[in-house]
Amino acid sequence: MISAGLVRGALLGLLAVVLALSLLIVANRFVRRHRERRRERIAAPVRGSLLELLCAEGDEQTELLNRLAEIDRRTWAALEPTLTTLLGKVAGGARAALVRLYELRGAAVDAVTELSSRSAARRGRAAQVLGQLSHRPAAPSLCRLLADRDPEVRLAATRALGRCGGPEAVPYLLESLYGPRAVPPAAVIRALVSLGPQAQRSVAAGLEHPQPLARAVAIEVLGATGVVSHTSEIARALREDPQIEVRVKAARALGRLCMPEGLEPLLAAVRPGRPVALRMVGAGALGTLGAVAATGPLAELLGDPDRHVAATAARALLQLGPEGRAELHAAADDRSRGPAAAQARAVLAESAVGAARHDVRAEVAL
Amino acid sequence: MSVATGEPWASLLGALHTVITVCDSVVIVYFLAINTSYLVLILIALGEFVRTLRRAPFAGHDEAATSPLTPPVSVIMPAHNEAAGIAEAVRAMLLLRYPEFEVVVVDDGSIDGTLDALREAFDLAEVEYVVPDDIPVRGGVTSVHLPRGGPVRLVVARKDNGGKADALNVGINLARYPLVCMVDADSILDSEALLAVAKPFCDDPQRVVASGGVVGLANGCTVVAGRVVEARVPPDLLGRVQVVEYLRAFLLGRTGWSKLGSLLIIAGAFGLFRKDAVVAVGGMDPDCIGEDAELVIRLHKHMREQGRDYRIVFVAEPISWSEAPSKLKVLAHQRRRWHRGLTEILLKHRRMIGNPRYGRIGLLALPFYVVFELLAPLVELAGLVLVPLGVLMGAVNADFLWRFLVVAYIYAVVVGMVSVAVEEYAFHRFTRWRDVWGGLVGVVAENIGYRQLTAWWRLRGMWDGLRKSPQVWGAMTRAGFESPGQVREKGGDRV
């Protein structure tokens, strides 16, 4: 049995812990408030200059930049949260001025050094800063960080590359999609889309990548950025790629690209017997494509045994304009067509109240 | 003669003495173990908070808020007799900050004009609609309504009464986006709530199948336009105790379990799921009172049986608020129902308990729930009876006992205070000193009477679950929130 002495000792120990916790709670609150007030007090005199900098031009801007660049470390630390917030909210000349201010303070150089820090939090923050500053010289270091052991740092590096990378970063981003230290495809897609038109030639090289995920991402990016010059390759991927995921992305991209070459492979993709995901996305893409020639095949899909395919086809018909709408009315009036008539009536009713729920992305899983 | 009759009594008393001594030891060890387990979970949660706070600057929230690649979400809101607050609740949902989402309200056979309130607020028109049958439902959909002519992403379905789980299943069938977010009609979400709870899906879309958000106590908080603008600890003792309980069990406990990869409960008040995963397991179980937790356990079961690499995570940020009972009677109903739900779930999935096939879920989380959640009221109430009996029979030294009770009580207070301290360090939502004081009062009061009362209610809930008595949802009378110029009052029964 537990001895009375032990109980007495535990009692005293616990009372000490209660006292310590009470002090901790009170002290934490006091310290936090004191720090906030101190930061406010220190930053207040220079905050006006910072706001002036956002609007200043020419010599006035240079003078303000020099003045702000020379503030002491304590004031800079107090001002930095405001600067970071502003950097994410302003554009044009104001943003350029803030970036210049960071550079004059040596923030970009410091961040590049921090990229090799042992602390994951520091590496991640450094990547974030470099991305915010669009610091192009950091791109090679950020490419290396795509294989960081910490997944959140990899994500921060991917986001940063989207802001400061160029075509040379594309192969690294595509490589980062697989392996033990992979980056989620959505993050890579976002970064590749952000790189702009000059990087899309490198992205198109990914269409021949041996990894299906890289091919799928390349197709998604080309579709999202509207690179019509690669429509035929994407159409071929829809017809021939052995991976369903790649074909689904190709169907969606063809809908977005709105090129005539997309019609035939999309019509083939929605035929019965193909995977449901592909048929759904294909039907949606035919609506986005807007080709009247798709009216008949889509009308046939209204009675499809899979209700999701049928509903997508009905909405796609609505997007085809008068021809599609006429087909919907015909199906709705034909009572012998049971489920097809119900789908047609439903989508027409939605349309009548002006609340048609159509979106190609809706049919796509994560 | 007297010796002959006295001997059996003496041996019986001796045996009883031994039994009570053993039982008292079990109760004592149990009390230490349960509080230690809470403390361990809280410390794990603290580690997670420190990590999250250090990484917040590069978490990428702003990017997710503006990117068209952020996965779209269908917010499903089942409603039963919520006419008083439904329009405001839906309006607040529609104003959430998220790139693309829709709100699907399922009116589960309300008789108080819930649908009329929505019709008036959003100019709804009834439309013909083909409801997919991905998940079988009991109460058929009688009508579907959409807002006229506008970009308002709202769908309202009216169905025959079938219970909350059935209404959620209808909502899942109506949802057109790959992620479904289940919220209560009386949940109050912060404007960033969807972004926060969807972040795990953006960061790890291949593996995350569900994520849950923190549910805070809205009692006493200032609510404006369906948003909590000032968090406060309620002035009444019952509210204060529940604040501490929510902090310890819902915020810190679940964060700890999530870190251990063994989260079993995602609150029905705010949880986000992959639609395909929910459909794959057959949706919510309409026969189970704790349908939210049951779904999570079924997802674990399914994923592990399929050999899938998956994650079910908890987002440790204060993002959702719910009103807790402010009357003992209502609280009693709630706790009885919760414990009945837990009993039913553990009975239903008893083959998973201790089964190595289900990894940490089978070997750690479920056994913990059996020992420290399901059986807790039984042991606590047994202790209330057996320990005094032990003193009377001389099986327990009275001097030792009172010292031990003081130690046990202070230990429980320490656990509660650590919860308050962690909240103060990581989130510091309560800005006033009196709120901190109120929280500490709640910590002190929780173990005097409240814990014993809830143990009794939970024991009755367990009995209901074991007997399989008819399911009855208690009346949830809501006091409303403090709101400048307007006080929201709600009341109603749930199926």
TrEMBL record, chain A:
Residues spanning the membrane: 6-31
Single Gene Ontology MF annotation: oxidoreductase activity
Family matches, as Pfam families: HEAT_2 (PF13646)
Keyword Cell cycle among record annotations: no
UniProt keyword terms in alphabetical order: Membrane, Transmembrane, Transmembrane helix
Source domain of life: Bacteria
Designated name of the protein: HEAT repeat protein
UniProtKB/TrEMBL annotation, chain B:
Keywords: Glycosyltransferase, Membrane, Transferase, Transmembrane, Transmembrane helix
GO molecular function, a single term: glycosyltransferase activity
Alphabetized InterPro entries for the sequence: Glyco_trans_2-like, Nucleotide-diphossugar_trans
Transmembrane segments: 27-46, 361-388, 400-422
Domain Glycosyltransferase 2-like per the UniProt entry, residue ranges: 74-211
UniProt family annotation: Belongs to the glycosyltransferase 2 family.
The protein's name: Cellulose synthase/poly-beta-1,6-N-acetylglucosamine synthase-like glycosyltransferase
Organism of origin: Streptomyces paradoxus
